[in-house]
């Protein structure tokens, strides 16, 4: 009986662990008198949420990739490329919706290429996506003529507006999109055959194959979905900046991966959750926000976030050892 | 299904052959499985049983031969195909996804769903049913499999195969990690399945177990089917004779050597991964063979002797000092040398050169003011290449480019180079050609005549009988018997390894009481 309740406790810790981390971060800044007043305001939380959209979208796809035992280093370059494509399309006179679709599909194509190369050439995902990181970034610069692409204002730019139109939306449309997609992905992972097969491939690929699962197809789908999310994230990046910038989001793939890992994802595959990832994204955003309010320089933020990643994963390890 | 006459076999394999490189794993094997029978497939390690079952499951494709299920041709393109035709496997090495729950593992690849949406209720019901069938309804379907004990994992694996309602069920060493009680339950399940007309291929090294559950048998030896028949009226000794065959021992060059005083005495040594403490001694100039089945604890003992696994208790006294608490580098300094059974994974750094591999464990002679004397290293490697007749382009060639036999010689050369005086050899001739084997036997004999001591672990009985002074046998983690080599024959060794009796006259109850 006590063993059972202990198992239940550790199960609860698994789910709530990242939440506790998030509450700690919020509590930390809420207790510092200098920033307390500004930090704890609804407007600030709203802006943190808006700032989280780009990483969050990338992290939704990355969660599937990491659960499936892979990694996608091309995510940030893919985001930049999609932002360029979206701007290019609007500039060329395409309807905003068409431009958005083009941006998202570009991301999907890059993901499809990743998945195809990983499965057909039997290369490790690290290498394939690292190569793709350069290819996507270079392609973006090429298409943009090595500069930013200015585009006329359209409703696309409203997606990331801090005060949304109409006002009853309360939050930027981008945030609602993230919430909807997060729920959809969580449901996909838990309640569909595809979701279960993602876990199986990441947990033990040989077993999955023995059980008759078409592992290659699963992997291609995973990378394609991750690419689509990066494409959408690129659209949001364009919406925020109002330009298509091929040099944006350099190094952001590491933030994305860190969010997944802080949220309980294991780089060995088989573990991770959408809820955890979203909390991971928020932990990083609140840290950045709080540090900025404190007036701490950027390098301090970098050190703190680096340390947080290591501590989070070390705690995760400890928790697993106890099981 | 009821239309087929009961005399026509469920499964027919004819002329099946499969080679891996130069090794013929299966050589023109034919096999028939009747409806509702438990058919034992037996043979020594490497006889081809696993390969044959992989061909049957569709995991590998045969080079030649054909198969039929219920009289219809069967040529599976993969394991999924095999499952659809009603062939299920319970593998010896566990094939579960540790992060997935018991339910998810059992249902993996056969999820109940509507347009991709899982029907968890229906799956739970099925899982509870099969868990009740293996008489372990207390295993919770919601627990991740990684948290279960090995025995419980094995039961989950069995439950998964039962769920498939397959009419051909292959069990590869299903009891290797089950308790006596769970094994008994499994036998009951097997009988129940048999009565429901399921045909079972049962692979096990434990011959008494095989005699109890199987109605008929087929023996494989060196990739060929050497005999089959009904179990009733077949004595244990007959099966053993078929397994070992009439193997000759002339292949083994005799190098005269004399056995001196004790060099290493091991007293109640217990490593973290050993099932039971082991006591043995090794003399100067002695070749001590260690027989036993794969997984019987031989490798674990060598690892503890060499310090790769921690020692929980006991002593390892080598020339007067106890090494039990020491790290591998200290033990190397005291003359111990280990040849790993896993040549590719552990024994060699395949991407490094022959010279690097040979000298890795002792680079001290080539150190010149902190730098490595590459010329000296190459020279030493060149000498060893000549001495061991290694076929390599030179010391600079990558170890991974050599053939298996030559790779093994490189690994052995490292022990020579580090001037080991107590050599722990784990399956030194596994998977290599006959000529290299013979050279390695001669080399081992030569070392003994130089006064070095050799612990020689092997699953290949003829070579143990051919070159050892003394042979000890492992059974289920314990050293059961040790005798001079002249006091053994292949059948006796096989009996000790598979049955674990101290001598063949003792009653069975002794083993069960363990």
What's the short story on this structure?
Chain A is built from 13 helices and 2 strands.
Notes on the structure:
The complex is a heterodimer of chains A (323) and B (514). With 323 residues, chain A is mainly alpha-helical. Chain A has helices at 2-31, 33-39, 42-67, 75-91, 96-120, 125-143, 173-191, 193-203, 205-210, 215-241, 252-262, 274-294, 298-322; strands at residues 149-150, 243-244. Chain A has a single domain, classed as Orthogonal Bundle (ABC transporter involved in vitamin B12 uptake, BtuC). A two-stranded antiparallel sheet of chain A has the order 1-2. Chain A starts with a helix and ends with a helix. The model of chain A has no long low-confidence stretch (mean pLDDT 90). Chain B contains 18 helices and 24 strands. In chain B, the strands form 6 sheets. Chain B has a 6-stranded mixed beta sheet, sandwiched between helices. Chain B has a 6-stranded mixed beta sheet with strand order 18-21-22-15-23-24, with helices on both faces. In chain B, strands 2-1-4-5 form a 4-stranded antiparallel beta sheet, with helices on one face. The longest helix of chain B is centred in the middle third of the chain and has 16 residues, at 180-195. Residues 1-5 and 502-514 of chain B have low confidence and may be disordered. Chain A binds chain B through residues 7, 191-194, 196, 199-200, 202-204, 206-214, 270-271, 323, and chain B through 59, 78-81, 83-84, 89, 91, 95-100, 104, 108-111, 113, 116-118, 120, 143, 146-147.
């Amino acid at each position: 009986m006590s063993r059972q309740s202990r198992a239940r406790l550790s199960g609860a810790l698994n789910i709530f662990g990242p939440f506790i981390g998030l509450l700690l971060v919020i509590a930390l800044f809420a207790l510092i008198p200098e920033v307390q007043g500004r930090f704890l305001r609804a407007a600030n939380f709203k802006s943190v949420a808006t700032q989280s959209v780009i990483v969050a979208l990338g992290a939704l796809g990355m969660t599937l990739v990491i659960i499936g035992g892979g990694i996608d280093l091309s995510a940030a370059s893919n985001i930049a490329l999609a932002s360029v494509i979206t701007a290019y399309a609007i500039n060329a006179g395409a309807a905003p919706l068409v431009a958005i679709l083009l941006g998202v599909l570009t991301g999907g194509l890059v993901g499809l290429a990743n998945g195809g190369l990983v499965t057909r050439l039997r290369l490790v995902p690290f290498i394939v996506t690292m190569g793709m990181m350069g290819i996507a970034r270079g392609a973006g610069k090429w298409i943009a003529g090595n500069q930013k692409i200015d585009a006329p204002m359209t409703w696309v730019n409203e997606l990331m507006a801090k005060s949304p139109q109409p006002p009853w939306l309360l939050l930027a449309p981008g945030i609602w999109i993230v919430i909807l997609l997060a729920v959809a992905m969580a449901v996909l992972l838990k309640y569909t055959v595809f979701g279960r097969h993602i876990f199986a491939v990441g947990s033990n690929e040989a077993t999955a194959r023995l059980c008759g699962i078409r592992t290659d197809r699963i992997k291609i789908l995973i990378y394609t979905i991750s690419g689509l999310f990066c494409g959408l994230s690129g659209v949001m990046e364009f919406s925020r900046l109002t330009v298509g910038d091929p040099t944006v989001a350099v190094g952001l793939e590491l933030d994305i991966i860190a969010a997944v890992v802080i949220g309980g994802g294991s780089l060995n595959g088989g573990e991770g959750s959408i809820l955890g990832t979203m909390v991971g994204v928020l932990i990083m955003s609140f840290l950045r926000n709080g540090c900025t309010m404190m007036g701490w320089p950027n390098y301090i933020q970098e050190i703190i976030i680096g340390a947080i990643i290591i501590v989070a994963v070390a705690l995760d390890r400890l928790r697993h050892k106890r099981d | 299904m009821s239309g087929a006459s009961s005399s026509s076999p469920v499964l027919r394999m004819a002329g099946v052959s499969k080679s891996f490189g130069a090794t013929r794993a299966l050589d023109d094997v034919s096999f028939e499985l009747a409806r509702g029978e438990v058919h034992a497939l037996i043979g020594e390690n490497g006889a081809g049983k696993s390969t044959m079952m992989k061909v049957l499951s569709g995991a590998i494709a045969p080079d030649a031969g054909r198969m039929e299920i219920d009289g219809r041709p069967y040529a599976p393109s993969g394991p999924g195909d095999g499952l659809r035709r009603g062939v299920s496997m319970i593998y010896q090495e566990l094939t579960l996804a540790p992060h997935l729950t018991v339910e998810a593992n059992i249902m993996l690849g056969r999820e109940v769903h509507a347009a991709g949406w899982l029907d968890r209720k229906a799956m739970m019901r099925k899982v509870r049913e099969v868990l009740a069938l293996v008489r372990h309804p207390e295993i919770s379907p919601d627990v991740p499999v990684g948290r279960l004990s090995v025995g419980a994992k094995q039961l989950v694996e069995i439950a998964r195969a039962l769920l498939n309602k397959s009419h051909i069920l292959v069990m590869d060493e299903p009891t290797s990690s089950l308790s006596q009680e769970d094994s008994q339950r499994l036998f009951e399940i097997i009988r129940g399945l048999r009565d429901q007309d399921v045909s079972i291929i049962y692979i096990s090294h434990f011959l008494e177990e095989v005699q109890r559950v199987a109605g008929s048998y087929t023996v494989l030896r060196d990739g060929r089917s050497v005999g089959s028949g009904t179990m009733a009226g077949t004595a244990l000794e007959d099966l053993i004779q078929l397994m070992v065959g009439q193997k000759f021992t002339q292949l083994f060059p005799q190098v005269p050597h004399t056995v001196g005083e004790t060099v290493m005495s091991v007293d109640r040594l217990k490593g973290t991964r050993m099932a039971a403490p082991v006591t043995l001694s090794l003399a100067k100039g002695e070749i001590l063979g260690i027989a036993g089945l794969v997984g019987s604890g031989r490798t674990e003992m060598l690892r503890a002797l060499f310090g790769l696994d921690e020692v929980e208790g006991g002593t390892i006294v080598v020339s007067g000092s106890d090494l039990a608490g020491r790290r591998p580098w200290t033990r190397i300094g005291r003359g111990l040398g280990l040849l790993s059974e896993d040549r590719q994974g552990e024994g060699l750094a395949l991407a490094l050169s022959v010279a690097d591999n040979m000298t890795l464990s002792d680079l001290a002679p080539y150190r010149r003011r902190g730098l490595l004397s590459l010329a000296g290293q190459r020279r030493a490697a060149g000498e060893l290449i000549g001495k061991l007749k290694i076929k390599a382009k030179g010391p600079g060639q990558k170890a991974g480019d050599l053939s298996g036999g030559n790779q093994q010689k490189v690994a052995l050369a490292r022990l020579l180079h580090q001037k080991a005086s107590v050599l722990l050899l784990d399956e030194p001739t596994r998977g290599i050609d006959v000529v290299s084997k013979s050279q390695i036997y001669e080399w081992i004999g030569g070392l003994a005549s130089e006064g070095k001591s050799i612990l020689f672990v092997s699953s290949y009985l003829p070579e143990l009988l051919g070159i050892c002074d003394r042979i000890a046998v492992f059974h289920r983690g314990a050293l059961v018997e040790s005798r001079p080599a002249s006091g053994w024959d292949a059948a006796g060794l096989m009996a000790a390894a598979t049955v674990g009796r101290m001598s063949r006259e003792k009653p069975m109850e002794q083993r069960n009481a363990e």
